[in-house]
Amino acid sequence: MDIIAFMMVFFLLILKQISMIQFKEVLEEKDNGEGQLLHQAVSNNDDRLLDELLSQEKYRKFINCRSGWGIPRTPLRMAASKGHLRCLQVLLAHGAEVDCLDVKAQTPLFTAVCGKYFNCVLALLRAGANPNGSLYNNCSPVLTAAREGDVEILKQLLKHGAEVNSRSKVLLFTSSASVSSGPLYLSAVYGHLDCFKVLLLYGADPNYNCTDAKLLSKIKQPKTVLEMCLRHGCGVEYIQLLIDFGANVYLPTLIIEKSTKQNEAVELLLQERGFPKSLVSQCRLAIRGYLRKINRIQSIDHLEMPSSMINFLQYKSVPTIAMHL
Ligand SMILES: *[C@@H]1O[C@H](CO)[C@@H](O)[C@H](O)[C@H]1NC(C)=O
Ligand SMILES: *[C@@H]1O[C@H](CO)[C@@H](O)[C@H](O)[C@H]1NC(C)=O
């Protein structure tokens, strides 16, 4: 009796599958003849054919249509992930939706960053792509660029207003270490000093990998970036930058390491605890802190000041006057 019932259920299930496949085929026939052709053109990097197709209304209707094996994706997402710049430009010129998400909540910008396609990243940002990627994605373009050490891509993202610290909203939903770590911490651990400095220049918090005070208070023993750099044996350059960018040198508690590099870093920290910063350094931190507060950290280069001062504010050089203070 049981076996018969089981067979019947099984049979019904198979029947349902078949009808669903047929239904899907009908749908695809109706939709995807044109969409498929667009995808093919992008896949072949044939921007001329793509342009020709998109000049016809019949095809343009399918400019944002998702298709393809595995992850269904829009033609723009495909062009971005393959680094097919000219196709990407054609799609944008014909009005493709710039921030369409795939099933993993990845935007075309995010996939271009993953592929390290600088020109595609730039084209997407200029077309108005959200530099933060999607909030529903566990990772962000900035995190990816910081981890991979793509300093030019990172600069462009930040120039276009990307968030420089971890996104606290995501932090609440996931325990993934790479997310809670924050881009500053990732760039240190992966040894990308240039990215580390760029993040600090764009206002990354030098103390915690989280700027949400409420969230911070919920974490039992929040670790400072300084502390994590010491633990991971990051070079003394990282410690120096953190100090220069105003990290609180009194926060880290642990200091138990052996390597020489580590000792050098610890020594620097202890030295810094003994001597307060120079007044010019304090001024620089105060000015930068204020600009960050009013969201104008990117405007430093446009301040009405002698260029030597601006260079100092941007950590490019020490003005001669600072030597005498
Ligand atoms: C990206 O994040 C920053 C910082 O949270 C925010 O100010 C900016 O508006 C976001 N950009 C977009 C396009 O959502
Ligand atoms: C900072 O990153 C570390 C390492 O991933 C994590 O353990 C810690 O909870 C993070 N801190 C905050 C405040 O998010």
Calculate the mean pLDDT score and round it.
82
How do the SSEs run, as a string of H and E?
A: HHHHHHHHHHHHHHHHHHHH
CATH-scheme architecture of the domain at 30-128 = Alpha Horseshoe
Q: Any idea what the CATH superfamily of the domain at 30-128 is called? A: Ankyrin repeat-containing domain
**Helical stretch tally:** 20
- Tell me the CATH topology of the domain at 30-128: Serine Threonine Protein Phosphatase 5, Tetratricopeptide repeat
Q: Which stretches are low in confidence, meaning pLDDT under 50 for 5 or more residues running?
A: 20-29, 168-179
Helicity, in percent? 55-70%
The count of β-strands is: 0
Helix/strand-derived category reads: mainly alpha
CATH class category label of the domain at 30-128: Mainly Alpha
Share of residues in strands: under 5%
The gross shape turns out to be globular
The termini sit apart by 95 Å
Pfam families: Ank_2, SOCS_box
Signal peptide: 1-20
GO biological process, one term: positive regulation of protein catabolic process
Subunit structure: Interacts with CUL5 and RNF7.
